[in-house]
Structures are given as structure tokens and as C-alpha cells.
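Protocol step 4 of 6.
Sequence for TetR/AcrR family transcriptional regulator (Olivibacter oleidegradans) entered exactly as in the expression construct, tag removed. Do not edit the line below.
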Amino acid sequence: MARSVEFDEQLAISRAMDVFWKKGYNGTTMRDLTEAMGISSSSLYNTIGDKHQLFLKSIKYYTESRMAAARKQLQPIKSPLKAIEKFILSSVYAITNEPNSCLAIKTTFEVATTDEQVQKIIKADNEFTYNLLINLVEKAIEAKEIKVSQDAEMLTDYIINHFSGWHESFIIHRDKTRIKKMAAFLIRQINQ
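Step 5 output, C-alpha cells:
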């Protein structure tokens, strides 16, 4: 009689996510994953699937966790402009304090260009960020908190595109002050 597989799947996926985050998809072996997850390869295959299926679950877990954290963090802020500023500053904190950069950005360049399933998850994450910010930008324009632009779509794209550049800059220079200065400049531009 086969033994039932018992482990905390969410915890195992979280541990696998950390390995993918550190080593990337291509640099991660099944042995790396099973050791980090504390399970055998047969348990992994029987419950979650292969490396690719685990990667999809890990990326989904990562992006959904970020979405939930953003909603929770911004929900109590009454001013749309202050919520935008908080989102920008939280992004700066993540960029400059996550030891392995952003898993979604790393995945975009390593895997998403050729993997439609990964691309779908990354696109949903990007759409969440865009929708969250455009909603705040539109409310801030309506409340006359933002005067720099009446084009909410353009301003939202403008804000979002800074994040990728900051990630790249921090990976290359490891200069927190530089990123913080760029964020402060962006916030000043929005506040004009």
C-alpha cells in the first residue's frame, strides 16, 4: 500500500520560490528544490508535478503575495496621492532590500519571453500594478492632488517604468541612496 504524502504545500512552495529567486529557473536543480522543501522527488512529482509546474506555482505565489500586501498596505490611506507615494516608497524599499532583486523581473527576462504560462502570470502581476496605480492616479487627478498631468494612463506608465530602471540600477551599482534620490525626484514631479 502506498504511503500518503504529507507536507505543508504552501510552505514547500514558499521554500521552492526562495530557491528559484536566488538561483533562477535554469540554475535551479530538482535536488536544490527537494532539499529546500524537505521532501523527496517522488513526493514532489506526486503532489505538485515537475520543476516547471513548481516554478509556475512559485511565481504565482510570489505575485499573489505582493498583490495582497499592496492592497493591505494602501487600503487605509485616504489620500490617493499619499497612497501613490507610499507605493513608490515601498517599491524602493523592496528594490534596495530584497537580496535577490525582484523575482517577477528576473523571471520576465529569464523565462517569460519563451514560456506562455509564465508570461500569463507575469502579465497578470503587471496588470494588477497598472490597475492599482491608474485607479489612484485618476482619483488624485479628480481630487486635484495631482496637477502635473491630466493623462492618467501616461502618468501611470511613467511611474511604473521607473521601477524596472531602479531595479537595474540597484543590481549594477548597489547604491540605495541613488535609488532613494530618484524616487524622491519622481514624487516631486508628480506633486508639481
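Step 6, annotate. Residues 116-142 form the longest helix (27 residues).
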